[in-house]
Every structure is written in structure tokens, then in C-alpha cells.
Amino acid sequence: CVELAEKLKEISKDIEIIPAHxxxxxxxxxxxxxxxxxxxxxxxxxxxEIFALETGLSxxxxxxxxxxxxDRFTLxxxxxxxSYWPWRMGRECNILDIELNYKNLINAxxxxxxFEGTVEVDPNYGKYHLDGHRACDVCFEPAETKKHKNICPKxxxxxxxxxxxxxxxxxxxxxxxxxxxxxxFYKLIPLAEIMAGYLGVSQPSSKxxxxxxxxxxxxxxxxxNIMLEVPAEKLEQAMDKKLAxxxxxxxxxxxxxxxxxxxxxxxxxxxxxxxxxRKKKQKSLAEF
Length: 288
Prior knowledge:
Layout: H1 2-11, H2 39-43, E1 52-54, H3 61-64, E2 74-76, E3 93-96, H4 102-111, E4 115-120, E5 131-133, E6 138-140, H5 142-147, H6 163-170, E7 185-187, H7 191-199, H8 207-220, H9 223-229, H10 232-238, H11 241-251, E8 257-258, E9 267-268
Parallel strand pairs: 1-2, 4-7
Antiparallel strand pairs: 3-4, 5-6, 8-9
């Protein structure tokens, strides 16, 4: 990491280095398999060149605020897309109040000026929020993992230690702590996931979901407008009241999510009281 930072800054001081998916177990700066507990440990004398961290799906700003040594960093959320599925795009994003050009963007990242917050998924939705072993359908909270000494009770292999566990390990503040001056964030389940639950189909890639999604985008312009801005009465005029109610429920952060673990996405519980079951099977394309 040190050599990479040196080489990039030799090319241009305007290149921004942002550790991405900061807590994910595999290949991330704070992941359980990375070996680093701080930016300084990773980047050494180049740590002062790092101004921001990208928090990944399995953590949100509130989780990161529990670690005081991260206070100096701008916390970004950049939706990654491992496939062409459109509902993966923009599921996490940054809110900026700037004249959009590269100079202003970098200044907002480095200073926080003009950076107004983020849109996040529920961290439980992420594929590595809790600890577990996918092959054995074992999913543990950190305390349960500790009881089992990080070992899968079914097969004896090591558990994949997730994001929440690592945050707990490095945290020096209680849950709910918010540093002064930090921007707020929105927490949303992607609209296509809400529609899939409403329609009773297993995947957002369903033709029914695409047709409904496209019709609403045609009426309201974009997904974030539907999710955050359109008044409830206008939603009810444009669609079934049950779907409108789910969108408002999502807006208010009232949709529970069965946590993800060891590469398994979390699942939004669209219908209250309906237990989610996970079946072991080959990954579908929609999981990427």
C-alpha cells in the first residue's frame, strides 16, 4: 500500500486514494483477513495522504463513528456493480452540494466542505455483516462466534469473521455515538428489492419487477426521488397503496433485514412476521 501511494502521488497530487469496502473480510484495510487495525498501520508514512474511507455495504457511518481514530476521514458510500443488474447501481451513493467538477469533488472529499452525507443500504443487507460459514448455513453474532472460538460448530472449519465483529473489536465508543459535525445519512433498501417482495417474486431481475420499475421511473424521474422525496399521497395515486406503503416504510427505516454473512446477501423482510429461509444452492447471476 505504501509503494502504491508513492507511485500514484508521483503521477499527480490530484489522484485520490480511497480504501474501498473498508471492513469487508477479504482484501480490505480493516477486514478480518487483512491484518491492519488502522490507516497508519497500512499506509505508514503515507497515511496523511488518505482523507476518506469507503464504508461498504456491510457497515454504515454509525458503525464507523464508534471508532474514534476514524473521525478525521470523510466516510463515502460508493455502490459497486459486480454485474450488469441495474438495481446494483446507486444502491449506495454520496450527497454533494458543489459545482460538479473534479477539483470541487476532491476538495469535498478532503475537507468535508460540500459533502452532505450518504445514502446507505441497511448494513444487515451486506454480504459480510455477521460472522458465519455459508456451506453449513451457520450465521453468528459476534458474541456467539466468540463462544465457538471462531470455529464452525458443524464442520470444524474457521468462520468468516464479518464486519460487525471487526467494528466491535476496534470500537472505543458505544453504539449510537455521533461525533460532532458529522453529516447524516439515509438508510434504504433498493427499490427493485422492495418491488420483488411486493410482487412475491424471488429476484429483482424478474420481468414483472422491471416493468413496474420502469413505469414508476417514467412518472417520477429517478429512484431516489421515489424513495426519498415524492409525498405519500402522490405515491398512492400512482400505484397500489400497499406498494406505496412499503416505499414509505422503507423511507422511515422500518423494514427489517435478515443479516448477510460469508458472502450471502441479507434479505429484506417485506412482509412482517414472515421468516426468511436460505436454501443452499449454486449462486445465481443476480447474487453478484
